[in-house]
Amino acid sequence: MSTAATSAALSVSVSESSSGGGSTSSSGFSERDVLEGDLPQLHEVTRVLLAMSKIAREQTEGEPVVDYDEDYKTLHISDPFFAFYLRWGIGVDAAPLRNGKA
Fold first, then answer.
1. Contact 74/13 with Cβ under 8 angstroms?
2. HEC profile for the chain?
3. Domain layout of the chain by residue ranges
4. Nearest residue to 24 via CA among 14, 36, 37, 33
C-alpha cells in the first residue's frame, strides 16, 4: 500500500452512547429518518463489525479494507476510496452499477 493511501486511512470510533435525535447529514436526513426501526444496539453493531473484519481478512487478498479493533472500539478503513464512498456515496443511485451500465 502506498504512503498516500496509508495516510488517507480513516478510523471511526464506535461509541456506547447515542443521542436521541441522531445527526443530520448534508442531504437533510437524520439517522432516525434513514433507519425505519429502532437504532441497533451496541452488541449488534459490534457483532457485524467483527464479522466484516473477519471476511476482509480471510476472503480478500492484500490488506483488509476494514478492520475493527474490539479493545479500542475503533473501525479502521484503510481504503481511501471505500472511505470516500461511505462518506459521500449516500444518495448516489447505484442501480446502473448493479445492472452493469456504468
1. yes
2. CCHHHHHCCEEEECCCCCCCCCCECCCCCEHHHHCCCCCCCHHHHHHHHHHHHHHHHHCCCCCCCEEEECCCCEEEECCHHHHHHHHHCCCCCCHHHHCCCC
3. 3-89
4. 33
Torsion of CA 79, 91, 29, 33, to 10 degrees: -90
pLDDT tens per residue, range 10-51: 666 665 544 444 444 445 556 556 566 778 899 999 999 999
Amino acid at position 52, single letter: M
Written as nine digits, the cell of 3 is 504512503
99, with CB counted inside 10 A (0-12, 13-18, 19+), is: exposed
Look up the pTM and report it. Answer: 0.55
